[in-house]
Amino acid sequence: MSDPGEEWQVARRRKGAARKSKSLQVPSTCSQEQLDIGKSGTADQLGSTKDGRLCQQCVCYGLGSFSSCVSARFQLAMLLLLLDAGQVPLKDCSVYDPAFSSGEMAVLRELGLTVLTENEEGKCLATKSTLFYLMHCGKALYNNLLWKNWSVQHLPLMRIIGNSFNGLMDRTVDREFKRDYSYITQAVSVCEERQLPCPSRLIDVFSDTAVITFPTSNLKRLPQSTWAEPPEPQYQHCSDLEIIQRETQS
Ligand SMILES: C[S@@+](CC[C@H](N)C(=O)[O-])C[C@H]1O[C@@H](n2cnc3c(N)ncnc32)[C@H](O)[C@@H]1O
């Protein structure tokens, strides 16, 4: 099968064309109110700092194959608008999905984003304020991300735009969720989740999406023992892991 991404071409901006569009243009059938993320105040709603910046860097996992999947294309558009509204330089946004074709990676680089080539399995340490954009990703990706940042120093640096943790929990058998995703289980009680509105025609694209933050004052409610040498997730009992793990060296 030929690589669908290879057929993609980057359309360059015409001379004189406007450099940036501040608002997402949507068809009249769609709620302008809910999608107009370029409006002033949107960055505030997402919890920006006083200088209007959403965060210092962004990491996007699991965007999906946007050359063949409409949802992934919308999600990419949303990411670009968020970076623009939050004043995050494109080069400070790293993207990774093992499903990207070489053509898709070329498109993302041409857009100015930083394409990661290593599968981190979501284990990315936030050393400065970081927006993690994980749209409809596997639970293990969120759980790994939480494990890597499992401290009162690092969790508050993270802001996740992705699946509602409460939603993930509600859709999974309680006993299995607690056994396999212990970091999400603990995070649910101390994170703050704000559900993002989703127009009905974009349910497949943005359903169940929340902005998730970790206020320091909430983290202090967890017992001290939770922070001491948190074990790396193994998932040995997990029959349907939902994420692609890095290849082990033989
Ligand atoms: C359910 S799909 C969601 C795709 C798209 N965001 C959407 O909503 O249609 C999950 C995505 O996570 C990606 N994925 C799996 N393992 C990953 C990993 N280790 N790191 C980053 N992304 C991963 C898959 O390739 C897939 O594109």
TrEMBL record:
Q: Where is the SRR1-like domain?
A: 51-212
Q: Which InterPro entries match?
A: SRR1-like, SRR1L
Entry's Gene Ontology cellular component terms: cytoplasm; nucleus
The source's domain of life comes to Eukaryota
Q: Pfam families of this UniProt entry? A: SRR1
Q: Where is this region: Disordered?
A: 1-26
- Which segments show compositional bias classed as Basic residues? 11-22
Family named by the database record = Belongs to the SRR1 family.
Protein known as: SRR1 domain containing
Please give the organism: Cyclopterus lumpus
The organism's lineage? Answer: Eukaryota, Metazoa, Chordata, Craniata, Vertebrata
